[in-house]
Amino acid sequence: MSTIIQDCLEETCAINPHSIEDYQSEVPRWCKGCGDHGVLASLQRVMRKNNVDPENVVTVSGIGCSSRLPHYLRTYGFHGIHGRALPIATGVRLARPEMKTIVTMGDGDCFSIGGNHWLHAIRYNINALVLVLDNEIYALTKMQVSPTSPAGTRSNTTPRGTYLQPMNPIGIVVGMTNVSFVAQTATWLPAHLDETIERAWSHNGLSFVRILQRCPVFMPKAYGEGGLNFPLVFLDNEDGIPINPALLKRGPAEAHNQRDINEALKVAARVDPAPMGLIYHNPDLPAYEDIRHSRAKRPDHETFLDRLDKVMDRYAV
Amino acid sequence: MSGPRLVRLSEHIVEIVSDAGEGAQKAAVSFAQVCAKAGNGLWTVEIIPSEIQPPPHTTGSASGNRIRLAENPVTNVGNLANVVFAFNEMALLSRFEAGTVASDALILIDDQWAEHDIEAYRQSYRRVLNDVRNKGCRVMEIPLEKETLRHVDNPQRGKNMFALGLLCALYNKDLEIAKGVIANVFKKKSQEVIDTAIKLCVAGYQWGLDNFETSYEVPAVPTDAAKVAMNGNTALALGAIAAGFDLCSMYPITPATSASHVLSDMFEDFGGFVHQAEDEIAAIGVALGASWAGKTALTITSGPGMALKTEFQGLAVMTETPLVIVDVQRGGPSTGLPTKIEQGDLLHALYGAPGDAPKVVMAASTIEECYYILSVARRIAEQFRMLVIVLSDANLATGQQLFDRPDVSHTPRRAPLDLSPVPAGTLPYDWDPVTGLSHRLIPGQPGGMGVITSLNHDRNGKACYDSERNQRAHKMRSRKLAALQKSLQPPEIHGDPDGDLLMVGWGSTRGAIEEAVDMARKQGVKVSSINIQFLSPLPPGLKEIFSRFKKVMTVELNYSDDWGDPLITEESRRYGQLAWVLRATTLMDIDCYAKVPGRPYMPIEIRDEILRNVETPSEKVPAESHAKA
Asked: C-alpha angle B238/B241/B242, rounded to 5°?
């Protein structure tokens, strides 16, 4: 069913009581042309489509341009500190597993200062939609090289060009124990972005989505000037991210079985052309908070007191 | 035969030390339980090396416990040890090097080293024993290894139970109690292990009866009150459950970790979680996230972990998210003395986070208080939307104290999370202009959506950068401390309300300070003491109390320059941490007795310091402590 007809039907039949405005708060203060606008709009569309009540959504972020997103998305937002969005989100998941949880981070935020939390959150497999908005540069602090900056990038801390090869975060994520959902998309492919976020939204576990985007001010040339000249390949699988025929103008499609970790590892190791779509998916891994809650049940007050009293017996003299 | 002659004592201190892994810890803990069950007042302190298997037969390998048993309740580690039971002479030497053994102590030592194959051992054994005899100690060589070998093949696995029996004979304890304690200590082992341990204990007991000329009787005062004995970390763990915490997020660090061991063992039965995070930063982050989401969370750590948590502390303060951090202090800076006591984190707790980050800082002064303090901390954290730091230390963490069994029926019933809708436009920081207090919104409450941010913000939660609203937000966060201070009481004075000298302490030094004050007062000194539980905000009335004494000084287990040290002048001297705070807040000339011995103060050390700081009373009593600090 096309989106227009569906929208029309839902409005008429009041199937979806929420409008896009329900997910909007203040006007974003990002730069003109920044990919962050597209990610915000895409999230709002997916939330509306899923008919989610905004009070039941938590959005956690770190520090950086992309981490301002919770200010502009009408949910319960927590704009935290640099690199530490994932521990906060883990706490939310343990405390309130019924809350839908979104995490937004930038490339420096997630891959550099938050690197340890990034690896371990994937291993915990908390049930959260984790979006990394990767523009290959530290932008809010005015152009310093990031872990994903291409070799030779000139920045304020590397005026003569970077010294190292860029990190391939997809390879790291797919190689991490207990990974359950890895996808890659880009802001210059809005339909693909929507489909990817939609797909990640419904995954029960940590859905890691790397979103490629340029920074119009400090990294306008990222990803072949924002996709104009960027070699990519769309991963094709009937259970993957749908490939709109218009997308094929940007790059070819290639058959891929995202349920096969060995195939996924091969794809993840490749950066040129960049694999776009669902790279790995294992829907059967339990989320950390579900494991923990299945083993810890709060007893009623009387049982609680009785158990505490029995504990005291152990130390009685 | 008639057995040993019985000597009645009101209290005694015994230290039991072996190489790490030889089981002196277990012998000592078992003996402490025997004393507790007999009804003695009790305080124990662990003697722990930093390594798991340090080189054996060295002073650095000494591992064991100090036990102070008394007729009446005791509040601290006590003075010089009266008995040292050492499994080798280097373990014995380590106790003399620590300066905590009386010059007329009874020394019990394994005699196997006298004729050991290794000549170096024979020599050092003779040398150390000669030295301690020359100091005035009585030495009794015990065939510990030989006797144990009569019952087991591997004496490493049994000497300690023989030693336990020996101590029961020395202190005239009921062997039946000891058997019960052994069965409990080894309850996870096979019956064969338990039977062997009991056999060895009985053998040790009989050997003692046959060979001791004297045995000691520290009578117990019979009481009907139900008592429990536990260490401070266990008390914190049980206190966290009783306080209604949902989550403890931590990363392993000595000496805090054993609290999470206790919690891990039982928290799920109460619906709680221990989350072992990937690092100290994540540990506080997870606790903060859970707390923001509406549950009650704490994180527990020690000095190096506190350092790593400072940025998140600032976030808790800025977002006014309730959170409790327990810092079980150890020796610093850096890795410092991981297993030993220091009160070195006070200023860090108060001022460690960047920017102005007002928070509540409390200190537990007894093991019993470790149990109750988390209920208070939680209440303050939630009512004031504040970060509360609770300071404990390695002495409280690993020592054991006997206290009244907590009445769990007082545990408040937990209300379900209030997720009722709020009117659209409800402010996340609806600051009361006088107190700075506000109601927090819980994710899931319809109408309350909005963002909380680490950036400066206004009442609506939105980021703002202008000077007026920055000043106001700081003011509102700070004002909460003043509001809390209004509800605090001035500290109780131990001793007279005025006099020549006031000793001011915080945390676990309380018992030793009060005992020292009592000793000095008996000698005619006009000295009193107070213990400050709230370090931020400070309780009201301090300046008024201080003004009634000729001299005020703090007693702390942290570093200060000594008067008379090279280069140290009135301008360059660095003071103890509480002294620093009190000097700044009262503008009074407050002195300090602040040292870093890596062990608790003995009351006589503080008593001697009191005598050094007052006009000579009518009959001057010479200082008798020779302890190194």
From this structure: 85
Q: Is the ipTM of this complex over 0.85?
A: yes
Which amino acid type is present at position B72?
N
**pLDDT confidence band for B221 (50 / 70 / 90):** confident
Backbone angles phi and psi of B14, in degrees to 5: -125, 135
Identify the CA nearest to A206 among candidates A46, A93, A45, A54: A93
Per-residue buried b or exposed e for B251-274, using 16+ beta carbons within 10 Å of the residue's own CB: bebbbbbbbbebbbebbbbbebbb
Determine phi and psi for B415, rounding to 5 degrees.
-80, 145
**B494 found inside a domain:** no
Q: How far is CA B303 from the centre of its chain?
A: 14
> Residue A272 sits in a domain of what CATH number?
3.40.50.970
Rounded to the nearest integer, the mean pLDDT of chain B is: 94
Reduce the DSSP state of residue A277 to 3 states and report it.
Answer: strand
Which one of A57, A73, A84 makes the best mutation probe of the B interface by having the most chain B beta carbons within 10 Å? A84
Partners of B593 in beta bridges: B555
Q: Is the pLDDT of residue B187 over 90?
A: no
Please tell me the distance from the alpha carbon of residue B118 to that of residue B112, in angstroms, as a whole number. 11
Q: Chain A neighbours among B 440-499 (CB < 8 Å)? A: 441, 443-455, 462-463
A7 inside domain = no
Closest residue on chain A to B248 (Cα)? A91
Which domain, by its residues, includes B290? 229-406
Q: Coil, strand or helix: which one is B381? A: helix
pLDDT at A12: 56
Q: Which of these, B33, B9, B17, B42, lies nearest to B368 by C-alpha position?
A: B42
Asked if residue B243 and residue B189 are part of one domain, the reply reads: no
> How much is the pLDDT for B21?
86
pLDDT of residue B620: 42
Q: Are B579 and B591 in contact (CB under 8 A)?
A: yes
A61 bridge partner residues: A79, A104
User: Is the CB of A292 inside 8 Å of chain B's CB atoms?
Assistant: yes
Counting the structural domains of chain B, the total is 4
B17-34 pLDDT, tens digit per residue, is 999 888 999 999 999 999
Question: Cα(A227)–Cα(B277) distance, rounded to whole angstroms?
Answer: 39
* Residue A90 distance to chain B (closest CA, Å): 6
